[in-house]
Amino acid sequence: MRTVALDWGQRISFCEVEGGKVTHRATAESLDALVGLLGPETPPAKVAIEACREVWHVAKRLREWGHVPILVDTTRVRQLGIGQHKRKNDRIDAETLARALAENRLPKAHELSEHRQRLRRAVNGRALLIEMRSKAIIAIRGEARTMGQALGSCNADDFSENLKQLSAEIKAQVEPLCLVLTTVESALLAADEQLTKVSMEEPATSLLQSVPGVGPIVSASFVSVIDDPKRFETAHQVEAYIGLVPSENTSGKRRLGSITKQGNSYLRAVLVQAAWTIMRSRKSSTLKSWGKQVKARRGKSVAVVALARRLAGVLWAMWRDNKPFAARHLCPAYALEERDGPAERTDTVGMTAPSILSQQGTIS
Questions:
Q1: Which pLDDT tens digit goes with each residue over 276-314?
Q2: How far apart are alpha carbons 272 and 105 in whole angstroms?
Q3: DSSP-derived secondary structure for 77-118
Q4: CB of 335 closer than 8 Å to CB of 256
Q5: Cβ–Cβ < 8 Å for 319, 356
Q6: Helix 114-146 vs helix 265-280: angle between axes, to the nearest 10 degrees?
Q7: d(Cα 157, Cα 295) in Å, to the nearest integer?
């Protein structure tokens, strides 16, 4: 089988090696332009490509053409020699990847299953709309303040009602921004419906919502990133994959720093928000009790991140075993604290459609 690498950028660099030597190089504007080298009529090849936005589409197309795509973990490509001696360009990178593939020393990235790709796109699309809505609201608030009127604090879903406080002059000034906000909110409703539809095909999302503080967005995000719980052996591996473990600089004496922040930043953020929801809940829960113990020793901020890390491990274990959350399984000493009933299962990032994803599962 041939050994090929593609370096994906504004242009695609193609490099093929055989017997330790480069046999062919090419540059193209698109994958279709490489059909003469990688099309369905060409001999099968193993094709290395760094994980990027286009990688799912490219991998699918390469398989259709009869090749074997191999995704490369971009966080570990420096160990291959990419960027050494301050020499880095598409041509050099493609050759480095091809040689590493031929020598079987590529750091491989996980490729999401096709359905989890759809779930990830739905989650990412909604997250983008949430960000756009936030920016529009901030812009409207700022414009109103410059004209002498400050809007009171409120939930993002209720902001449109807050606009009624504005004077006629300010309303006229912020009307273009309000039109943007209305459009985004309409798109957000459609995104919620799409996410609901895709999530309903994933039983794991409902299962994970049996954890207090975990709502549909957290569960969908977790499933779309982890993809398959069986590809991890321990909860610590999951926590490290998400970037919630302490960084380490050990030379002699062990030194731990802030969390690594590797992996999917959005999943990490919603897990931290879920941890805040648990800590602020008026009802007692096992996870809240554990977080309060950490808070007493290390402070609130450390406790929230630690709880987010623990939550990731709990979600993974539930999904692996296909069992709903049970306080007694987490820590028997705290199980009695659940006697007041289930803790609040408030979603942490503000759903705009109340019906999105039923809150299923029990806490025993």
A1: 999 999 888 889 999 999 999 999 999 999 999 999 999
A2: 35
A3: GGGGTTTGGG---HHHHHHHHHHHHHTT---BPPPPPHHHHH
A4: no
A5: no
A6: 70
A7: 31
